[in-house]
Write a structure and sequence with these properties.
The complex is a heterodimer of chains A (about 80) and B (about 400). Helices cover about 15% and strands about 60% of the residues of chain A. By secondary structure, chain A is mainly β. Chain A has one domain: Immunoglobulin-like (Sandwich). A 6-stranded antiparallel sheet of chain A has the order 1-2-6-5-4-3, with no helix packed on it. In chain A, a hairpin with a 3-residue loop joins strand 4 and strand 5. The longest helix of chain A has 11 residues. The radius of gyration of chain A is 14 Å and the shape is elongated. Chain B is α+β, with helices and mostly antiparallel strands and about 400 residues long. In chain B, the strands form 6 sheets. Chain B has a 5-stranded antiparallel sheet with strand order 11-9-15-22-21. In chain B, strands 16, 17, 18, 19 and 20 form a 5-stranded antiparallel sheet that branches. Chains A and B meet through strand 3 and strand 5 of A and helix 1 and strand 2 of B.
């Protein structure tokens, strides 16, 4: 059963994931976006993810994926 | 295939993106023009949701995917339809036979093959046959005319079908057991006799008439026929001819000037149409560039202007030219070993626009002709021989 769940997760990608590149963040399986500004973007999942920086902008906005680019200074979690 | 739209959005962009997120609209690509203007790539089905957001100015600026092709097709539909019809016509025309050429010297066989090809559907304005069908037809024709045809090849050159035939040569040479004598084909004075077989019964400088036996097939000894062989040999004699030549005093000479012109021409079948050129058809083709497309041909042709000059011979010149013409005429009848012994002008008169000249020729020519003498004629042959001796 565990193997089946692993395969389902691998194919379906239901788990929350956040991939951080230099000046880029790719967030997969988020719930919603709470706030968007050039200095702060708050993404809601189990916890709120606060991304702060300069010239932040969204490059791709899908139902389950958001791609943020800009001069990222901090990423913090807020319960 | 999905359809996508590039949409330009103006207004509070951050608010717009939040609204899109709430409305579950997938934005595949966001390109920032300014902080109040973006271009987004969305699914076509999401566009209605965006249109309802009245706070933002939206405009479709481009399409991607199936929709783009639909738009292109509707925009260029006349061109596409015309091209398609043109293509169909081209394919149809290039698959139709417009002419058939049968290469053979035998006209009877040619017409037979033509009919046979017609029977198998290879005829003018019919569709071309496939490679396998042509092979089948070739095989059938070869089988039908196996006594007449050695080899047949049917090939297509554009809209033309070329049929090459190699005729079967049947060996018809039969063994010749006939007994020949050599007789005079015309009257004359014997000049030379070369006997290969048989016995010569005429002497040099003797006069012979047409039909006289010159070399007999009978070998006679002591007034008895000892043997009969087929006579063979050559007998040369002096013969006589009268040749009449009429020669015009006026003649036309064609002179080409240095004026040349290039003309465009179109040819349909055997009709040629020229655009611009020399008047009165004073032209001559010297260079021709062709584009062969079946029965249609067009290109440029270089024309050279020509002028016709009327000239007149003097009586002396005309007489000399007429005599030359008469000699030429007589020489066409002579073989290599035959020649003109002498000539004499018999009659000459001027007829206004032309001169008439009668020339007498004495010719050294072969008069021996092989002829079969029936067995019953043995006596006659011997009798003639006896007479000369």
């Amino acid at each position: 059963m565990k193997i089946f769940n692993n395969i389902c997760n691998y194919i379906g990608e239901n788990n929350f994931r956040m991939i951080f590149y230099l000046d880029m963040i790719d967030i997969i399986n988020y719930d919603s976006i709470k706030e968007i500004s050039s200095r702060k973007i708050i993404i809601s999942s189990e916890k709120d993810i606060i991304i702060e920086g300069k010239n932040l902008s969204i490059n791709k906005l899908l139902n389950k994926e958001v791609f943020i680019i800009g001069n990222i200074k901090s990423i913090s979690l807020d319960e | 295939m999905n359809s996508y739209l590039y949409v330009s959005v103006k207004g509070n962009i951050n608010r717009f993106l939040l609204k899109c997120n709430k409305a579950k609209i997938n934005i595949l690509k966001i390109e920032y023009i300014s902080y109040k203007s973006i271009i987004i790539l969305i699914n076509e089905k999401d566009y209605n949701k965006i249109k309802k957001m009245i706070l933002f100015k939206t405009k479709v600026i481009n399409k991607k995917g199936l929709n783009k092709y639909k738009d292109l097709i509707s925009k260029y539909k006349i061109l596409i339809i015309c091209s398609f019809i043109g293509l169909i016509i081209l394919v149809l025309l290039s698959n139709i036979v417009f002419s058939i050429e049968i290469i053979s010297d035998n006209n009877v066989l040619k017409s037979k093959i033509y009919k046979e090809l017609e029977y198998y559907g290879i005829s003018k304005y019919n569709f071309k046959k496939s490679y396998s069908e042509i092979n089948k037809i070739k095989k059938n024709i070869k089988n039908k005319f196996k006594d007449n045809i050695e080899w047949i090849e049917i090939k297509e050159a554009g809209t033309k079908v070329i049929v090459n035939i190699v005729e079967r040569k049947v060996n018809n040479i039969k063994s010749d057991n006939e007994i020949y004598s050599v007789v005079a084909s015309k009257s004359g004075i014997i000049k030379n006799i070369f006997v290969e077989q048989g016995v010569s019964i005429v002497e040099k400088e003797s006069y012979v008439k047409k039909g006289d036996i010159l070399i007999t097939s009978d070998i006679i000894l002591n007034d008895e026929i000892k043997n009969r062989v087929s006579a063979k040999g050559k007998v040369y004699a002096e013969t006589w001819y009268k040749v009449r030549v009429e020669y015009p005093l006026n003649y036309k000479e064609i002179k080409y000037t240095n004026n040349t012109k290039n003309r465009f021409y179109i040819k349909f079948g055997n009709n040629t149409f020229y655009l611009f050129g020399f008047n009165n058809s004073d032209s001559k083709n010297i260079l021709n560039y062709k584009n062969d497309i079946g029965i249609f041909e067009m290109g440029f042709i270089k024309l050279r202007e020509k002028k016709i000059v009327n000239k007149k011979y003097s009586i002396k010149e005309a007489k000399e030219a007429a005599l030359e013409e008469a000699i030429k005429k007589i020489k066409t009848k002579l073989n290599k070993d035959e020649y003109i012994i002498g000539q004499n002008t018999l009659k000459f008169y001027n007829n206004g626009s032309k001169i008439v000249i009668d020339v007498f020729f004495s010719i050294y020519e072969e008069i021996g002709e092989r002829k079969v003498i029936e067995m019953g004629e043995e006596y006659d042959t011997r009798h003639i021989g006896d007479g000369i001796q």
